[in-house]
Specification:
Helix content: 25-40%
Number of strands: 6
Strand order of the largest sheet: 3-2-5-6
Oligomer: single chain
CATH topology: Rossmann fold
Number of domains: 1
Shape: globular
Largest sheet: 4 strands, mixed
Number of helices: 3
Low-confidence stretches: none
CATH superfamily: Flavodoxin domain
Strand content: 25-35%
Length: 109
């Protein structure tokens, strides 16, 4: 609830050699998990990189994706896709295909 970050290993994640960053998180109290917050804080070499973000939740992700997007944009990342899957949608093959297709399209842009 407090948007806290956990320490992660490795302490620094260099994505400079990557074309695209994909980040997914379960939703805890309408926020990303502390481990995902820690991973985003640890990102390096991400200025100008594209990202697709997604969240899984029981019913509502509320502010999860806007908070993640803001944190990534603060590191110079351009969020090109955002998806939320509730407990029913996570089993919907067509919705998952849309996420995968978005990732492929973003990588090829």
């Amino acid at each position: 609830m407090k948007e806290e970050s956990d320490a992660i290993t490795p302490e620094s994640i260099d994505v400079s050699a990557s074309d695209l960053v994909v980040i997914g998180t379960p939703v805890w109290a309408f926020k990303a998990t502390p481990a995902i917050n820690g991973a985003i804080a640890s990102l390096r070499g991400c200025n100008g990189k594209k990202a697709v973000i997604f969240a899984t939740c029981g019913s509502s992700a509320k502010d999860t994706l806007p908070i993640l997007k803001k944190a990534l944009e603060g590191k110079g990342v351009i969020v090109v896709g955002q998806f939320v899957f509730n407990r029913k949608e996570i089993e919907d093959g067509q919705k998952i295909k849309v996420l995968i297709d978005s990732i492929i399209a973003a990588k090829n842009r």
